[in-house]
Request: fold
Amino acid sequence: MPAHSTDPLLHPEVRQASILAYGAGFVASTVFMAIALVITLGRVLPYLGLLAAISALAMLALLAQVVLLFRLDLSETQLWKTVSLALVIPLFVLSIGLTGWMFHTLYPRTMLHFMAVQGSGSMM
Amino acid sequence: MSLVHLQGSWTPWLGRLTLSVILYHNGIVDGAFVFAAVTGIVILGVITYYRKWGYLIREWITSLDHKKIGVMYILIGLVMMFRGFIDALMIRTQQMMADGPDSPGHLQALHGYLPPYHFDQIYSSHGTIMILFAVTPILVGLMNLIVPLQIGARDMAFPYLNAVSLWLTAAGAGLVMASLFIGDFSHAGWIGLIPLTELPYSPGVGVDYWMWAIQIGSVGTTLGTVNLIATIVKMRAPGMTWFRMPIFTWTALSTNIIGLTAFPVLGVALALLGCDRYLGTHFYTAGLGGNLMLFTDLFWIWGHPEVYFLVLPAFGIISEIIPTFSERPLFGYITMVAATFAIAGISWSVWLHHFFTMGAGPDVNGFFSVATMLVGIPTGVKVFNWAFTLYRGRLRFDTPMLWAVGAVFLLLVGGLTGMMLAIPPINYTIHNSVFVVAHFHCMVLVVAFSIFGAIAYWFPKVFGFRLDEHNGKRVFACFSLGTFLVFAAMFALGFMGMTRRLDYLADPHWKPLLIVEEIGVFFYCVACYYFFRMLHVSIRDRAKNRVGADAWGTGRSPEWIARSPVPFYNFAATPHFNALDEAAWRRGQGLSDVAPRDYEPIATPKNTIAPPLIGALAFGFGFGMVWRIWWMAGLSLIAIIGVVILRSFATETEHVISAEQIRSMETTGSSVGIVTDHISPPVAEAEAFL
Ligand code: HEM
Ligand SMILES: [Cu+2]
Reply:
């Protein structure tokens, strides 16, 4: 391996860094997450509305981090990282999707609340 | 402080810590304490007496050399494995003694010799230690050691990060050990049975120890996965194309992709539990909007991939050992790579088979049942590939080969019983019975067998001499006999209805089989004895067992072209690769002994005290959180950030060895391996920085 004797400050990733973007990324993601916390604690929205709202806020926080903090794009320096992030999406869909499906079939069988709604409750 | 209701006292300076948590009135714990304290004092005393502190700190603790880090990982893992083994011995003995209403009680126990509260801590620590602090670190250590050698690299992509990972793992292991003497460990199983882990049901510090130890250790493991992936993708020497990569490196790549994607889920699952326990939230509580099934779900989203994180490198090890001792190339290299990635991919969609009985609908259980059984196909491909490699090979049964072949047999038993468990109607009858325990022990023993095989196989590469074969074979024989006795009996007990995690067993008919298991454990003890004797004899007779670059004479993959013991710079000149199985190719071409004509300067990373410091501070942070000593946790965290920032100002992080120095070290054949009695050059240079 060649000696890494070059100045680390010349590294392309380091060249991309900017205090402004870091600050903005930090503030933006903190704000989005704080809003999510507040509306969860406040219980102002109905169940589905709350779910939609915090999902949207999570997406925004993620975007703020991807764009402002990590500065991911399709340039040569960042391509590998962008691709790695994209590759995680199937896992995301898989784990959250299957979990959702599982709970969807689990609640009617195990949760008293749903048993009351559905009348007879357990099928097993 | 008032966010959650804490039992017992709390003071700002000491948190929940009081003198009474240290002083027990339990013979077993006192015994363990005395044993550990005496051992510790003896070890520290010996180091001091022989004035080895400087050596240890200079050559090992501050080292960034991937081989030394690998060896330290393996040492930590072996020590923890020994501790986990003592736990197992205690569990088995308690169950044998506490069978039937007439079984006598000793010490403070009604039956057997361990009261339930203590027994529960022992099986919880056994599982946590064996999976997360024994087998995982050993495998990570092996990958650290071998992967750079196999791809012709000088070190890992990020040597400093590598050391940070090691010391975070050490901090986690340290927390588990500390719980033995200061407070308790969790009694809620290695999987953290929910809602038992919630504060109202586990008001002590046990669950906190479990949670923070895993959390800190797994940050280390996650950082390690990034490092290994980057190393494999970016650091391959010229000619090392993707499809010339040795199988062990392929399995390392797939395993670390699994680790990188799965460990964060564990981190989140535990962090939410932490929110419940520290901030009074209701993620997993039974009421107030909490959902306790969510913990089980999240835990296994990590947990199942984790078991493949363990087994894939083991498959890689088997795939390295079998060709070497069959004197043939591995059968079906491409299918082996494909099977590795198929297993890794499928491992993400099977986790629900750990809770078929929770009550999800038949479609869901059916889906996960089929997905689970699909894993059998690529696993079967691997087994056939190994069988075809053995077929008509010129077989030699040196110790590594014995372990590898033993592992394949265990894989069959574990895999087939896994298939049984994957069928929901069967699972409903044997879930949470010791049949499950026997299944996964066969599987994790595949890993353990491979580890012992790997240690025997690669030891000469790292240290320059072989382990003693005579005692090594005895370790194998006793270990295998113990495995057979314990787990054959355990499968039978599972069918007889014995459930997991029992401190008292109601059915006296189980007694004979429990005694068989205890006899099996006795053979494990004998295996331990021979293991230590093997180390002793090997080191004593090392001059007799010296080896050259190709320690077994029939090595195939590239690590066998490096000198044994591997010099700290790995390869005197950057190797160029010409074929899959480079060492075998060079042997075939008569190029094994060719020395490079020209040497170039080599840069190696300088030592630094930062990683062990970060590890120590992480321990302080974890300890502070466990005992709710906020100032301690806070200061440690700030100090960690400070150390990281300070270190980023270090500019002279590399030490360059001139071409002449390399030439002289290569031509005089002087020992520049990892155990030397003189100060190795990168260290001598770095002294100023310490
Ligand atoms: C052919 C592949 C495999 C199949 C079909 C399989 C199937 C299963 C099933 C269905 C269970 C759940 C049993 C229950 O709790 O009712 C289980 C548990 C388990 N398996 Fe496997 N398994 C396989 C491979 C492995 C491997 C490779 C490992 C580890 C190296 C492993 C480790 C475990 C562990 C640790 C548990 C239980 C954890 C616990 O509840 O404490 N399995 N397996
Ligand atoms: Cu599983």
User: Anything to note?
Assistant: The interface with chain A takes residues 153-155, 233, 235, 261, 265, 291, 293, 297, 301, 348-349, 352, 358-361, 363-364, 367, 574, 601-603, 651, 654, 656 of chain B (CB under 8 Å). Confidence is low (pLDDT under 50) at residues 685-690 of chain B. The first strand of chain B starts at residue 602 and ends at 605.
